[in-house]
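Example 9 (inverse folding). The structure is encoded as follows.
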C-alpha cells in the first residue's frame, strides 16, 4: 500500500476507537443541565435528555439506581448528574450513565419531602375530617418503635409515671436505614391486630433528615392513614416534622410528649374526682335542705293541719249549688209551662174544629170507586152533577149528592 493511500477502517473499528476514546476520557463526569423528554420504561429504566441553551446530552438511569432516588424526576427540573459516558456501538450514539442525581438549588431529600407532601395532600391524607380522637383512658397502648432506643425508654417512663392503669406492648421495628419504612408500616398493621389496643404511638428520637427519612416514606404514610386505631406520631425533636406527623391523628413534638398525650395524669384525675365528689356532696346537702323546707311548708298548709275544714267548705258549696239548681230548674219549668199554654191557645184558635163551630163546614168529594177515597173541595171545577159529597160540620158529617153545579159569575173590572 502506498504511503499516500489512506488507512481505511470498518464502521465497527471506527466506533470501537471512538468508544475507547470517549469512555477513556470520561470515566466519571459531573454534568449540570435541565431534564427533558423524561420517560420511564416498563423495565424500570429511566431515559432522559440533559440540555442547556446550546446543546443536549442523552442519559439513562438504570432501574437499580432509579429505585434508590428519593425524589421524583420531572421535565424542566434543574439537576446535577454524575456517571460515566458510554458509547452504544450498535447505534453509534453516546449517553451519560447516571449513577448520582442531585436537584439543583435544593437538597434531594428536601425535594422528595416536598413532592411527597404535595402528592399526599392532594389525595386528602392530611385532611382534618379523617383525624380520630385519642382515647382519654386507653386500655392498651402499642409502641411501634425501636425497642433499644432512648425514645422508647422515655415513653415507658412517662406513661407509667402518669397513668399506671394501662397495658403497654412494644412492636419492635427498625427506625432508620434500608427497609426501615417497610418495617414500620408492617409494625403498624401488627399493632392494629393486637387485642384491646386502642392507641398506637410510632416514632423515634431526633436525628438528621436522613436518619428520620423512614417516616417520610409513602408506605408508612399510607399504613398510618389506613389504620383503624388512633395513632400518635412522634418523630424527632420539636423542630422536626415528617410526613407521618401530617398523616397521624395527633402529632407530638417529641416521644415524651406523645406519652403525655396518650394517657392522663393520675394526680389530675384524682383531683378532678375529689372536686366532683365534694361538689356532689354539697349539691346533695343543698337539695336535702330544699326538700326539707318544702316538706315543712306542705306540713303547715291548712289542708294537712285541718283537713275537715276543706271538706265542710266543699259540702256547704255543694248544698248551695243544689239549692240554686233546684230554683233554676223550677223557674225554667214555669217558663216552659207558660210558653206551652200560650202556644196551645194560639193553636186552638187556628184549629179547623174551632172554625167549624162558628158555622163553617168542610166538603169533600168522593173520587174513587170506594167511598172512603175523598178529596177536599177547593174549586167548583172539582164537582159535577151526580157526585157524592161529604160535608163536615161542627157536630157531624152530612152525605149528599150533587143535583146541579152553578158557577159564580166573575165581576168585570174596568180601567
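The amino acid assigned to each position is listed next.
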Amino acid at each position: 500500500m502506498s504511503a499516500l493511500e489512506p488507512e481505511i477502517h470498518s464502521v465497527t473499528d471506527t466506533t470501537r476507537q471512538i468508544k475507547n476514546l470517549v469512555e477513556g476520557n470520561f470515566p466519571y463526569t459531573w454534568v449540570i443541565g435541565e431534564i427533558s423528554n423524561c420517560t420511564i420504561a416498563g423495565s424500570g429504566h429511566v431515559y432522559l435528555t440533559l440540555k442547556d441553551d446550546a446543546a443536549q446530552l442523552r442519559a439513562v438511569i438504570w432501574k437499580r439506581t432509579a429505585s434508590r432516588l428519593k425524589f421524583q424526576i420531572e421535565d424542566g427540573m434543574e439537576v446535577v448528574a454524575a456517571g460515566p459516558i458510554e458509547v452504544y456501538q450498535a447505534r453509534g450514539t453516546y449517553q451519560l450513565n447516571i449513577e448520582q442525581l442531585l436537584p439543583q438549588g435544593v437538597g434531594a431529600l428536601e425535594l422528595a419531602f416536598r413532592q411527597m407532601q404535595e402528592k399526599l395532600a392532594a389525595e386528602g391524607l392530611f385532611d382534618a375530617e379523617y383525624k380520630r380522637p385519642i382515647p382519654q383512658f386507653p386500655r392498651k397502648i402499642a409502641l411501634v418503635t425501636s425497642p433499644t432506643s432512648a425514645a422508647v425508654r422515655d415513653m415507658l417512663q412517662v406513661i407509667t409515671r402518669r397513668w399506671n392503669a394501662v397495658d403497654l406492648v412494644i412492636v419492635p421495628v427498625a427506625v432508620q436505614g434500608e427497609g426501615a419504612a417497610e418495617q414500620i408500616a408492617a409494625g403498624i398493621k401488627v399493632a392494629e391486630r393486637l387485642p384491646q389496643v386502642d392507641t398506637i404511638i410510632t416514632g423515634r428520637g431526633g436525628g438528621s433528615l436522613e436518619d428520620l427519612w423512614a417516616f417520610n416514606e409513602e408506605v408508612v404514610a399510607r399504613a398510618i392513614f389506613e389504620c383503624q386505631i388512633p395513632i400518635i406520631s412522634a418523630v424527632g425533636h420539636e423542630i422536626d416534622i415528617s410526613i407521618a406527623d401530617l398523616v397521624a391523628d395527633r402529632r407530638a413534638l417529641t416521644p415524651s410528649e406523645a406519652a403525655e398525650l396518650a394517657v392522663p395524669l393520675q394526680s389530675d384525675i384524682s383531683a378532678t374526682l375529689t372536686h366532683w365528689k365534694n361538689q356532689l356532696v354539697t349539691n346533695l346537702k343543698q337539695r336535702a335542705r330544699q326538700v326539707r323546707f318544702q316538706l315543712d311548708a306542705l306540713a303547715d298548709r291548712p289542708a294537712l293541719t285541718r283537713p275537715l275544714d276543706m271538706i265542710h267548705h266543699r259540702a256547704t258549696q255543694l248544698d248551695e249549688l243544689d239549692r240554686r239548681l233546684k230554683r233554676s230548674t223550677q223557674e225554667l219549668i214555669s217558663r216552659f209551662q207558660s210558653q206551652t199554654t200560650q202556644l196551645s191557645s194560639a193553636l186552638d184558635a187556628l184549629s179547623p174544629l174551632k172554625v167549624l163551630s162558628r158555622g163553617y163546614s168542610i166538603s169533600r168529594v168522593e173520587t174513587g170507586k170506594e167511598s172512603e177515597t175523598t178529596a177536599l173541595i177547593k174549586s167548583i171545577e172539582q164537582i159535577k152533577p151526580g157526585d157524592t159529597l161529604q160535608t163536615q160540620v161542627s157536630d157531624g158529617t152530612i152525605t149528599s149528592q150533587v143535583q146541579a153545579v152553578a158557577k159564580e159569575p166573575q165581576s168585570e173590572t174596568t180601567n
